């Protein structure tokens, strides 16, 4: 069947309808698998043979078309797939053969559905129109074919439907009695006795019916086969074309094998052998370098021990770090060095402990030596080496050790100073008085004060030494922070100079530099340099060989190119590379710098705290409160000087010592104020309010205040001729008649001002206490004079006008000095403290009110006299009357009492007020007597008395031009 139809199809057609359209292969790439030889070899019937060239597939059996055991009908009748043409391969080789993926071509672009997007959009509208037209107007041939096919199929289908449905069931089985009885109904033609002619005819009829059913089914099957004949013919044509293509492929593969064999023989075997030899030589060079590196690494532990014996911790750590780096990179996996890494780690931990212990010993040794011993920094190089090693190992807590030693040393300084002071003091048994606080309290103030100054001096030297040491540590940290190599200068200096002297050698590679560094102290350096010099000579004689050797060394060292190896400077220290990962980070270095500064601040605070303990130990029994003003001022100056020196030295404003001094100053001010207030109270209670003489020293004191010196003058050696005391105190050209208490009050507030000058920190407290003192003087003097308290306290018989005038003048003197005191305190206060100056305004107002009350009291005394005398006045002869004579007499006494005490202006103002009171009482008495200004006898008598009064008053000193205006005593005429 295949041979009869094979001539009707062209075998070479590639674009016809007889070829199966290949589906585009997916883009996934799988490894190409060789086809298994599933068919055994059979002898060929023809003389066709294949090329004997090399095979790209396994050549254990050669396969031919005659080796196939699958015939074409078997391939065509495979019911598994609808597409029969692919069954030829899938029948024997499996379904995966036809689905094998093909490697996509790298020369063709990857075409996706997006590349046809524009075309699909353009043709979409046309396709819709075409489909709509096909639906509306179907093609005539299609209609006829459909109608004929329907007609041809309807008739067999009708006959096929006559076949009983039981034969079409999938579970049809004749062994089933029910099915058997349904197909062969023997009950219809079986008689009770046996067979009859009717039964025979019925069986024949049944047989014919069955035959008819078979014919109908066969016809239907034949019709179905005829409908699929085109697929059979297509499969045959595909088979012939496949055979042709396989033959062409066989020829191409044979040619490819022959060419590949020739290429392998001519171009590959020789060069590959050369590459193998070069690789072998390169491996030998690498092995030699490895052996040299192993020899150097083998000397690591002895070299580390040698370095540790000389306290070269940094060099030992660098050597260990470089050796570990070499073990991890260059010598990784070498069995003989399997334990060296852990040994080096243990050795590194041991070095860490040694460095920490050595640093502790260094700090203790530095702190325990004498403070006045030079130099300030002990063994600078050793300190730098230790700090760099600790930083390299990230032992960043070494400053805590230094801080602990600072605390211990600060305590020892105080104990040592106390012990040294007790040696020079007699009368204090250190065995009986064992505690330092008790020993200090037993000392006199000069002895304790000298001890305190010695402690201050010792702590200043102590802080200077700490600052110098911390500066060295800070410089090392800065060098690590700023240096790219993070290495302290001076380590392994001789070895660096040796390598720098060989910098002109272009073939001294990084490997040799590492070797030279690893063999510290010159153990293998000479051999390495001799080998390098030999390489230089070989390079000068044979440049080609030298370049090859250089390339081999570059390969052995893992370099990318020889140029990179040559450009590597000899002076570069590759041993720093492993250490870079162990160095502190930038953030940690900044934190260390901050800790260094904080440590200096802490040292300053510790020093101040120890001094505070010395101060409080002395003040425990209240001895500092009982100091004189001069002694406390000396103490305050010394403490303030020490605080300023530490502030400048450490850059830290420590407050503990100043706070302790302020606390003692507050107690001192309290006692200072209480003493002077009690003293002032005693003076006032014993004051008889009589004018006192003014000694010369008080006049000098007042003169110094006028010159702007608000301080107590120094005591002068008394002159041979003592100056006599003055009657009045001259202040700015005015005379002040004062009592002795006021003179002492002036000295007292100057003492307050002097304390503020010496101890500025107590200015606010001293101002408050001085305000209280001034208020106390005002209130107490008011009680004694205006309140007549002096009658009971001192025993005065009466408070005279002279006492009142003298009290008023004393108050005026204090008011005069209040602005001066205020201005002085204002210079000692900060701007935010100016609000407390309002106390002086209140005090000034109180004093002025008191002065006004004294003046009113003087007027009230005369007013009561006028009321008493003028109430008995009668207008009758003789003239002047006795009443007016008494009034003039009393006013003359008043003038005599206050004239020398009060200034002229105040005297005139006082007598004007007294005269006004006299006119009021006289006018009232004349109105009572009915005397009017009518020119009568009574009027004339009164005029005589008034003239007598005016003449007497104006005859007094400083009252000559006083306008009495006596015309106001008469009422206006009605």
Short overview:
This protein has helices at residues 2-5, 72-76, 87-93, 95-98, 117-136, 140-162, 177-183, 197-227, 229-298, 300-309, 313-329, 340-368, 380-392, 398-423, 436-442, 445-482, 493-501, 510-518, 525-541, 543-557, 562-566, 576-580, 586-619, 629-650, 656-685, 696-706, 740-758, 763-784, 790-793, 801-828, 838-870, 882-898, 904-929, 937-954, and strands at residues 729-731, 734-736.
Give a description of the structure.
- Belongs to the VPS54 family.
- With 974 residues, the protein is mainly α.
- Among the domains are: 182 residues, no CATH class; 177 residues, Tetracycline Repressor, domain 2 (Orthogonal Bundle), CATH 1.10.357; 102 residues, Monooxygenase (Up-down Bundle), CATH 1.20.1280.130.
- The protein has 34 helices and two strands.
- Strands 1-2 form a two-stranded antiparallel sheet.
- β1 and β2 form a beta hairpin.
- α18 runs antiparallel to α19.
- The longest helix has 70 residues.
- The termini are far apart.
- The N terminus is likely disordered.
Q: What are the SSEs and their pairings?
A:
Elements: H1 2-5, H2 72-76, H3 87-93, H4 95-98, H5 117-136, H6 140-162, H7 177-183, H8 197-227, H9 229-298, H10 300-309, H11 313-329, H12 340-368, H13 380-392, H14 398-423, H15 436-442, H16 445-482, H17 493-501, H18 510-518, H19 525-541, H20 543-557, H21 562-566, H22 576-580, H23 586-619, H24 629-650, H25 656-685, H26 696-706, E1 729-731, E2 734-736, H27 740-758, H28 763-784, H29 790-793, H30 801-828, H31 838-870, H32 882-898, H33 904-929, H34 937-954
Antiparallel strand pairs: 1-2
Helix pairs in contact: 6-8, 9-20, 10-11, 11-12, 12-13, 12-14, 13-16, 14-16, 14-23, 15-23, 16-23, 16-24, 18-19, 19-20, 23-24, 23-25, 24-25, 25-27, 25-28, 27-28, 27-30, 28-30, 28-31, 30-31, 31-32, 31-33, 32-34
